Structure to design on (647 residues):
């Protein structure tokens, strides 16, 4: 490898982004297959064996279609929103350790960085909803931001539980601590496990996944903030949503399930397995559950999750103090 | 120029353009987007100055929370915030005099200051400065009392704001025009829901 | 700064992905020969759009954002605390219990006043 840090970063970054976008393309296939099976259908079968080439066909199709900007829309912000959303969704991958050596950078506040980006994610989607100047879009966008900011609090608080237990904010440090002292999902009796569940829930909410998908409830808001979007711009939003689900699974696996830590198999394989398992869980939930109403979402967050995670955090602090 | 120099350049351009958009945009939402750009640009500069924790706070609190608050206030004001007169007020010739005048004064002042004063040389920050550990040590050690007091300040701010917002929100809710129109058209509520409550999201 | 170089470069690459895809679509797109006048109309389930969407919204959004800012500032204080717990021991826990207790007073007030209710 070259010694110039900028060139090195460029090559590594390009590799990570390529791998991620490829993964995103094919988990759309995976999700459609699973969704089909859950609904007693076959899912995509026509393009390639088992429909495996479907993502490629979809990509070409969405690029050929015409991007329509509504007459009353704010064209500048309308165009800006999709690439911005995708950038933020992909951005968190910079600090996720896929194996002890395979990590873009182990910055000392990696956890905060990932949380900050993921907290900003609902904003470009709101911009999309506002710029469309469509009632469904704007209502969806408002709901999305209200939900996004509400669930950001329990998400950050539950993600800080592993930080307290490990005593570091670096993603690599959190995993190394787990490799030595056991996974956080089982340590600090109960606290780690509940924090893990809360983190998964809030990750679903941040990604507007069922049961938290009221912002794009198709029965009342058509397609929520992305109602006016067509062709490649719509695909960018879809890619961002899948990338966010995938990376949220990866972050949950890193913070609570020991990341790359595991016996026999190479570390990277463990990381992929854990991330994949969590993603499958999210997909399973998506195609099994109903959606919550706005007011139910808000009470769940503010009246239960926020005080619960605060107590969890104090519990984790007490546990660490008693253990040392 | 070093890569770091380019990075500073990008951040500075983003911040300044964002600031220009904030003050010059007709549309308040575009202004808020400009503010967002400024905040992100400044966060980039914090990273370059090895103040990573400050950069993270900048993104979490300012970009993630304060801008959202601004935007929701703009949405609360509704079209009134968009300037119904399109910004064309009588007496707008005053700005054609005032704006260049203030600009020239500011620029002149800056140039004068740069000429007169000797450049201040700052020592390099000690290693570990600006890391989250250093901040934590200060906050929970030396600055304990201000830290605990800050929570009281937060509470006072929240209580005041909630009190103001509630007094407005608990006014007898006015029906949105759409429901009224429906009722006039059909001579009564066409759906049991319309008889009781206002429309789902829209207040007026 | 050194450890941030990969992150910044990565962010730049991640930002360019969407732009590159938009550019590729520019090249590949198939233009319609005939553009009906309703093509660029705002979608409203086939109806003529009634007015603009940029309307006044309910104050409850503002209230949620307000309570959010309160708790967001608090989480920012919790991040250094999470690191300091080991070093400062039980002292840090007591400090944070006081902080959180006062904060929960505000939370109870917000609940009592209905700021947490999504009416």
């Amino acid at each position: 490898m070259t010694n110039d840090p900028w060139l090195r970063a460029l090559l590594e970054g390009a590799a990570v982004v390529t791998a991620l976008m490829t993964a995103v393309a094919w988990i759309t296939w995976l999700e459609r297959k699973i969704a089909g099976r859950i609904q007693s259908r076959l899912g995509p079968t026509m393009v390639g064996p088992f429909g495996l080439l479907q993502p490629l066909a979809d990509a070409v199709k969405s690029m050929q279609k015409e991007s329509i900007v509504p007459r009353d829309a704010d064209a500048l912000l309308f165009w800006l929103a999709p690439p911005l959303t995708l950038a933020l969704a992909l951005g968190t991958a910079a600090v996720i350790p896929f194996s002890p050596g395979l990590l873009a950078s182990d910055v000392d506040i990696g956890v905060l960085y990932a949380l900050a980006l993921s907290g900003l994610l609902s904003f470009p989607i709101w911009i999309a909803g506002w710029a469309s100047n469509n009632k469904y879009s704007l209502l969806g966008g408002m709901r999305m931001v209200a939900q996004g900011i509400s669930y950001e609090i329990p998400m950050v608080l539950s993600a800080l539980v592993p930080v307290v237990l490990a005593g570091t904010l670096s993603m690599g440090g959190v995993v190394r601590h787990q490799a030595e002292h056991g996974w956080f999902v089982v340590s600090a009796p109960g606290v780690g496990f509940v924090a893990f569940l809360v983190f998964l829930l809030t990750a679903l909410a941040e990604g507007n996944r069922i049961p938290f998908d009221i912002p794009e409830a198709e029965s009342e808001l058509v397609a929520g903030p992305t109602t006016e979007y067509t062709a490649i711009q719509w695909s960018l939003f879809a890619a961002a949503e899948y990338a966010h689900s995938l990376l949220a699974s990866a972050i949950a696996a890193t913070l609570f399930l020991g990341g790359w830590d595991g016996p026999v198999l190479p570390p990277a394989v463990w990381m992929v397995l854990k991330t994949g398992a969590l993603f499958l869980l999210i997909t399973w939930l998506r195609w099994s559950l109903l959606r919550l109403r706005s007011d139910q979402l808000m009470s769940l967050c503010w009246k239960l999750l926020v005080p619960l995670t605060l107590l969890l955090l104090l519990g984790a602090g007490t546990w660490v103090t008693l253990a040392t | 120029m070093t890569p770091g120099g380019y990075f500073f350049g990008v951040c500075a351009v983003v911040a300044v353009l964002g600031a220009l958009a904030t003050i010059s945009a007709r549309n308040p939402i575009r202004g808020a987007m400009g503010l967002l750009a400024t905040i992100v640009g400044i966060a980039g500069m914090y990273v370059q100055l090895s103040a990573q924790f400050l950069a993270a706070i900048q993104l979490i609190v300012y970009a993630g929370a304060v801008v959202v608050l601004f935007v929701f206030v703009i949405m609360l004001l509704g079209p009134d915030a968009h300037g119904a007169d399109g910004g064309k007020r009588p007496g707008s010739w005053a700005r054609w005099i005032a704006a260049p005048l203030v600009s020239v004064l500011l620029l002149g002042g800056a140039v004068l200051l740069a000429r007169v004063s000797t450049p201040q040389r700052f020592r390099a920050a000690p290693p570990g400065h600006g890391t989250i550990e250093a901040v934590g040590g200060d906050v929970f050690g030396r600055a304990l009392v201000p830290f605990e007091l800050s929570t009281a300040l937060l509470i006072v701010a929240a209580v005041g704001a909630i009190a103001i917002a509630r007094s407005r929100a608990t006014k007898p809710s006015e029906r949105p025009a759409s429901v009224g129109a429906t009722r006039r058209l059909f001579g009564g509520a066409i759906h049991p829901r319309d008889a009781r409550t206002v429309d789902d999201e829209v207040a007026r | 700064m050194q450890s941030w170089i990969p992150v910044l470069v990565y962010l730049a690459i991640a930002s360019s992905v969407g732009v590159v895809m938009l550019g590729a679509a520019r090249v590949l797109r198939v233009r319609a020969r005939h553009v009906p006048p309703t093509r660029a109309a705002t979608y409203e389930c086939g109806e003529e759009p009634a007015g603009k969407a940029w309307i006044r919204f309910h104050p409850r959004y503002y209230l949620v954002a307000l309570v959010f800012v309160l708790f967001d500032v608090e989480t920012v204080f919790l991040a250094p605390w999470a690191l300091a717990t080991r070093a400062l021991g039980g002292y840090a826990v007591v400090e944070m219990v006081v902080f959180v207790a006062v904060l929960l007073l505000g939370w109870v007030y917000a609940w009592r006043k209905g700021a947490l209710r999504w009416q």
